[in-house]
């Protein structure tokens, strides 16, 4: 083989091997996309669960604030009655 033939041979081998690397890389990327999709679904499920907890906490806080406001009003009334006596 002369020098230019060797160069062509090396280039052909390099191109053929890079083609298999590209196919492997594409498969890896597809697997990564599948993994990302699965993780995204799990994250969405967890987000929905967390949101339900937050909504319940907000309801409980609103109830507690309402109770405190009633107690504050009752206390003011009691203090006012004591002051009037």
Present the secondary structure layout:
Layout: H1 3-84
Q: Any overview of this molecule?
A:
The protein has 85 residues and is mostly helical. The protein starts with a helix and ends with a helix. The protein has one helix at residues 3-84.
Question: What attributes characterize this protein structure?
Answer:
85 residues, mainly alpha, rod-shaped
Spatial shape:
rod-shaped
Structural class: mainly alpha
Largest beta-sheet characterization:
none
Question: Helix and strand succession?
Answer: H
Strand content: under 5%
Question: Which residues form runs of ≥5 with pLDDT under 50?
Answer: none
Would you count the extended β strands for me? Answer: 0
Radius of gyration in whole Å, from Cα?
36 Å
Residue-averaged pLDDT: 86
Multimeric organization = single chain
- Continuous helix count: 1
What is the terminal-to-terminal distance? 120 Å
Percent of residues in helices: over 70%
How would you briefly describe this protein structure?
Helix content is about 95%, strand content about 0%.
């Amino acid at each position: 083989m002369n020098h230019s033939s060797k160069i062509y041979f090396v280039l052909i081998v390099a191109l053929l091997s890079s083609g298999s690397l590209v196919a492997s890389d594409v498969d890896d990327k597809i697997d990564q996309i599948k993994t990302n999709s699965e993780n995204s679904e799990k994250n969405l499920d967890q987000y929905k669960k967390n949101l339900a907890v937050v909504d319940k906490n907000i309801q409980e806080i609103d109830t507690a604030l309402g109770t405190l406001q009633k107690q504050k009003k009752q206390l003011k009334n009691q203090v006012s009655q004591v002051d009037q006596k």
